[in-house]
Amino acid sequence: MRKVPLMDIRSQYLELKTDIDAAVKDVFERSDFVLGKEVEAFEREFSDYLGIKNTVTVASGTDALILILDALSIGKGDEVITTPFTFFATAESIMRVGAKPVFVDIEPETFNIDPDKIEDAITEKTKAIIPVHIFGHPAEMDRINQIGNEYDLFVIEDACQAAGAEYKGKKAGTLSDAAAFSFFPTKNLGCAGDGGAVTTEVDAIAEKIRLLRVHGSFQKYYHETIGYNSRLDTIQAAVLRIKLKKLDEWNERRRNIARLYNEALSDLPLVLPFEKPESKHIYHLYVIRVEEGLRDKLADYLEKNGVGTGIYYPVPLHLQEACEELGYKEGSLIQAERASKEVLALPMSAHLSEDDVEYVSSKIREFFNN
Ligand SMILES: Cc1ncc(COP(=O)(O)O)c(C=O)c1O
User: Fold this and answer.
1) Can you give the pTM of this predicted structure?
2) Is residue 156 exposed (0-12), middle (13-18) or buried (19+ Cβ within 10 Å)?
3) Number of other CB atoms surrounding residue 117 within 10 Å
């Protein structure tokens, strides 16, 4: 039976094997494993790619969020507005610094935070808004920044799923006070383990993150503040420098696969991913919506036919056990709850073939025809 996995990370390595093997060997030859020369080079190249002044790499996307919040002195007694329809790390980072996440429901079309609902959630304690460019589609940043300006709130992008995505011609990660990226291997720009970065136009924020990532110290054994041990390994930076050169090409392939799926599935009783005209979706995930009840049956049917699928996310964050003390109940955020029952991610990667897309689409059609 044909097998089409949900994601295909290994093919990235096979395409770039000669360069990656050589780069990793070089790092071993130099043995500058922590904050070695590749780290600085990648930071410069990623800044150039995005069109932003500063990139500060850290150990993960989660750390990127935590360090941004810490750098902005957000903590105990503060509230941060965000979306319930994201990976746990978005809210976890807020809670980790001692602040309270306040969840605002999502737009059903893009699954991103609904800007029209943000103002109702603002209180005297609100310090920041964290929109997430979920699945690779940018959030409504003009509207969110306008609210941020009006109420004097920081805006922090969670761009962990959106390397290369664009909003009104500008790259995700350049649209707010500071942004968090994840280079987890399954991300569209992924390294060979954990990795992340903060991007910002504001030098003072970048400086603070640089200080925090090395134990609050610029000068060895002299510590200005309590920090973290959160650095991107040199090996990871070396791998990312190679993959960054491929990012636009790979994102275009993802967009092409999305177009092929859209064409093949357009007449079936399901909702296809939505791309706003001012946005460039990079399809970190290709997520369809299927009527509640049918979704799991379709996933089973596809699995039986060798097709991998995923549910991002089965439980919205406001209903997670870890968020119980925040006091949300079923019915609090209807759009996010509905989405969690209907979403299904289909195989997506830059290395998926047209035949694979055709096979997956034909199996979905077969399911609805039976
Ligand atoms: C939206 C979002 N935020 C944050 C993270 C955390 O990133 P990491 O796994 O690199 O800590 C991820 C990815 O896992 C993510 O998808």
Assistant:
1) 0.98
2) buried
3) 16
For ligand 1, say whether the CB of 160 is within 6 Å of any of its atoms. Answer: yes
Residue nearest to atom 8 of ligand 1 (CA): 61
For residues 357 and 257, give the distance between their C-alpha atoms in angstroms, rounded to a whole number: 7
Average pLDDT rounded to a whole number, residues 298-319? 98
Centroid of ligand 1 to alpha carbon of 194 (angstroms): 10
- Angle, vertex CA 173, rays to CA 126 and CA 282, nearest 5: 120
User: Ligand 1 within 6 A of 60 CB?
Assistant: yes
What are the structural domains, with CATH classification, of the chain? 10-103+110-244 (3.40.640.10), 247-369 (3.90.1150.10)
Q: Say if CB 172 and CB 150 are below 8 A apart.
A: no
Decide whether any atom of ligand 1 lies within 6 Å of the 236 Cβ: no
Exposed/middle/buried for residue 253 (C-beta within 10 Å: 0-12, 13-18, 19+): middle
pLDDT, tens digit, 9 for 90 and up, residues 166-186: 999 999 999 999 999 999 999
Mutational pocket test of ligand 1: of 9, 58, 60, 62, the residue with most ligand atoms within 8 Å of the beta carbon: 62
What does the alpha-carbon distance between residue 96 and residue 230 come to, in Å, rounded to a whole number? Answer: 15
Residue 111 beta carbon below 6 angstroms from any ligand 1 atom: no
CA distance 27 to 258: 37
The CA distance from 264 to 267, in Å, is: 8
CB 199 within 8 A of CB 321: no
For 207-226, how does the pLDDT look when each residue is reduced to its tens digit (9 = 90+)? 999 999 999 999 999 999 99
